[in-house]
């Protein structure tokens, strides 16, 4: 059997097993050494490939798609620094538990460490960030090697998706010539009627003794808080709100918790807790007896202060599989059980709850008072950043997604995204909290076909303008709302702002670029509203357009800082009256 047949059959069996293992989407970054994988994937009728030229953009595009679909997406690139450009997205996948399958082509062993072009050390290139790394064998087409290729493909999909999802990395050494022969008979080999490694995976659940012990401990308290941090389980919202209703206990719900939006009851959801907890005085008067948290640590920094200040109380963190996401450093009981099932099990325990109703009522009154201030439109002409987010969350269509950037964008979403009966999936790259790759991530989510709104700042937009090419190439429908305060607005809220001599150069970093020109270069529509009425119109119109639509809202960093501080001052004054 000659080299070309070995290459073709080996690669075809691997690719076919990816499809057999329920992989459907592959993002390819063009290159020469990856030709066997790229051509074979393009040839396979059950795989949908998308071509994204910039590797960093490609990786974040795959990441956004995987987050939205909640299943693995594969990446393919050539050898050398092409693979290195995937690294930021691999890191994000690790921390945000997002399944990716990274397939990097490589020079064969005889071309390594001798100065051959595009030959770098790709063995464990991403360190410990992947869940699994494997250096694939050189292509051969014997029966045992075709089974090996299928086994590794199936293992890659299973490993990426199972448990706490994450990235896997398979490195393929290919010798030239690199062109497969698709005229071979029985090209795709022998596929079983189920994946090579068929999987049956159950969910973790407390046994009866564990459940009763936990329930008895919780029932010994009077003032509790249920906290829902960033998470993506669609079943949690209904289960946790049912539990809260039974316990009559407030739920502090992060905007990425999937609890603020949907048809479930939200009477006990406290969405303004970030504004409430900004006052140290108020935090001191809201001491709970216990906190039980589902999902990751919330975005809110005031909540982090609150948790640290109450390190002496009973604290529980529920993880569906495993992990230690407790950055406050407090003594905490980790509960490893499926979150939704745990809520259902606790709700059906026989012993009645005896929690303090006045505690709940205090939180509800404060939440309403804070919302009254946050929903009040008090700007005359210019649109503030908070008002922009409020208008967006009101205008966003039902059954759609919001993908939000980091820094100020996610914090303003936390403050101004109120509960809604709309079905809105809220996504973000809160694993590593970086601002890179945001446009590509949003486009990846949009590629699934659901209406998608990306909210980000001008620095995040600048970091990933290359990503706009994918929107143009595939006519992806997305509305991008860019809050342009000409630099890093979040630094105005940090102590660095007091170092005036170097603040603008080191932290403010004004860009002074014309975003409209960039949008036009990629064939998108552009609007720059001047007030709230124009913003609402622009948003509503953007959802009717096909393809890329960008709405730019220009703000002033100093004015934004003062506006936020005034809001918080008003809220603190109002809330203290409820506690006096």
TrEMBL record:
Q: Which cofactor does it need?
A: Mg(2+); Mn(2+); thiamine diphosphate
What's the catalysed reaction? isochorismate + 2-oxoglutarate + H(+) = 5-enolpyruvoyl-6-hydroxy-2-succinyl-cyclohex-3-ene-1-carboxylate + CO2
Return the broad EC class.
transferase
Q: Which GO terms describe its biological process?
A: menaquinone biosynthetic process
According to the entry, every stretch annotated as the Thiamine pyrophosphate enzyme N-terminal TPP-binding domain falls at 13-124
* E.C. number: 2.2.1.9
Which InterPro entries does this UniProt record tie to the protein? DHS-like_NAD/FAD-binding_dom, MenaQ_synth_MenD, MenD_middle, THDP-binding, Thiamin_PyroP_enz_TPP-bd_dom, TPP_enzyme_TPP-bd
Q: What GO annotations for molecular function exist for this entry?
A: 2-succinyl-5-enolpyruvyl-6-hydroxy-3-cyclohexene-1-carboxylic-acid synthase activity; magnesium ion binding; manganese ion binding; thiamine pyrophosphate binding
| Pathway stated in the Swiss-Prot or TrEMBL entry | Quinol/quinone metabolism; 1,4-dihydroxy-2-naphthoate biosynthesis; 1,4-dihydroxy-2-naphthoate from chorismate: step 2/7; Quinol/quinone metabolism; menaquinone biosynthesis
Source domain of life is: Bacteria
How many and how are cofactors bound here? Binds 1 thiamine pyrophosphate per subunit.
Entry keywords, A to Z: Magnesium, Manganese, Menaquinone biosynthesis, Metal-binding, Thiamine pyrophosphate, Transferase
Presence of keyword Magnesium: yes
- Give the family, as the similarity comment puts it: Belongs to the TPP enzyme family. MenD subfamily.
NCBIfam families in the record: menD (TIGR00173)
Q: What is this protein called?
A: 2-succinyl-5-enolpyruvyl-6-hydroxy-3-cyclohexene-1-carboxylate synthase
Q: Which organism is it from?
A: Lentibacillus amyloliquefaciens
The gene it comes from is menD
């Amino acid at each position: 059997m000659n080299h070309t047949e070995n290459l073709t059959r080996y690669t075809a069996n691997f690719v076919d097993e990816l499809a057999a293992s329920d992989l459907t989407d592959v993002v390819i970054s063009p290159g020469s050494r990856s030709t066997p994988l790229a051509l074979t994937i393009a040839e396979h009728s059950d795989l949908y490939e998308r071509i994204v030229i910039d590797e960093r953009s490609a990786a974040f595009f795959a990441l956004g798609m995987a987050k939205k679909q909640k299943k693995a997406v594969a990446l393919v690139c050539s050898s050398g620094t092409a693979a290195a450009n995937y690294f930021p997205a691999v890191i994000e996948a690790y921390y945000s538990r997002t399944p990716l399958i990274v397939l990097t082509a490589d020079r064969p062993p005889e071309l390594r460490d001798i100065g051959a072009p595009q030959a770098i050390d790709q063995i464990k290139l991403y360190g410990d960030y992947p869940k699994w790394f494997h250096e694939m064998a050189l292509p051969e087409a014997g029966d045992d090697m075709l089974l090996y290729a299928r086994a590794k493909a199936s293992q890659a999909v299973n490993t990426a998706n199972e448990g706490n999802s994450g990235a896997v990395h398979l490195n393929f050494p290919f010798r030239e010539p690199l062109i497969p022969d698709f005229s071979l008979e029985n090209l795709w080999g022998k596929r079983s009627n189920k994946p090579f490694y068929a999987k049956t995976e159950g969910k973790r659940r407390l046994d009866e003794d564990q459940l009763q012990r936990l329930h008895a401990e919780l029932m010994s308290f009077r003032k509790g808080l249920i906290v829902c941090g960033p998470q993506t389980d669609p079943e949690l919202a209904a289960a946790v709100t049912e539990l809260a209703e039974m316990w009559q206990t407030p739920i502090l719900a992060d905007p990425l918790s999937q609890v603020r939006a949907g048809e479930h009851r939200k009477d006990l959801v406290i969405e303004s807790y970030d504004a409430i907890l900004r006052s140290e005085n108020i935090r001191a008067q809201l001491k709970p007896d216990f906190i039980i948290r589902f999902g990751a640590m919330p975005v809110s920094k005031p909540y982090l202060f609150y948790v640290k200040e109450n390190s002496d109380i009973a604290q529980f963190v529920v993880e569906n599989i495993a992990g230690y996401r407790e950055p406050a450093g407090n003594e905490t009981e980790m509960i490893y059980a499926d979150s939704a099932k745990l809520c259902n099990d606790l709700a059906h325990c026989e012993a009645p709850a005896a929690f303090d109703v006045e505690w709940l009522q205090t939180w509800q009154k404060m939440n309403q008072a804070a919302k009254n201030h946050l929903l009040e439109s008090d700007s005359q002409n210019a649109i503030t950043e908070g008002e922009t987010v409020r208008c967006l969350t009101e205008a966003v269509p039902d059954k759609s997604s919001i993908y939000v950037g980091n820094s100020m964008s996610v914090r303003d979403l936390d403050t101004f995204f109120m509960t809604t009966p709309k079905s809105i999936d809220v996504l973000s790259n809160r694993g590593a909290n970086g601002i890179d790759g945001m446009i590509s991530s949003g486009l990846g989510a949009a590629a699934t076909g659901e209406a998608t709104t990306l909210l980000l700042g001008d620095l995040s937009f600048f970091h990933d303008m290359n990503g706009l090419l994918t929107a143009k190439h595939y006519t992806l429908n997305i509305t991008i709302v860019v809050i342009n305060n000409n630099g890093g607005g979040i630094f105005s809220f940090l102590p660095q702002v007091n170092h005036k001599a170097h603040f603008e150069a080191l932290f403010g970093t004004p860009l002074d670029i014309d975003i409209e020109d960039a949008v036009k270069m990629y064939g998108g529509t552009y609007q720059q509203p001047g007030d709230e009425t124009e913003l609402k119109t622009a948003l509503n119109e953007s959802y009717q357009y096909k393809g890329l639509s960008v709405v730019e809202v220009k703000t002033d960093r100093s004015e934004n800082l003062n506006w936020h501080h005034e809001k918080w001052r008003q809220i603190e004054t109002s809330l203290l009256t409820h506690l006096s």
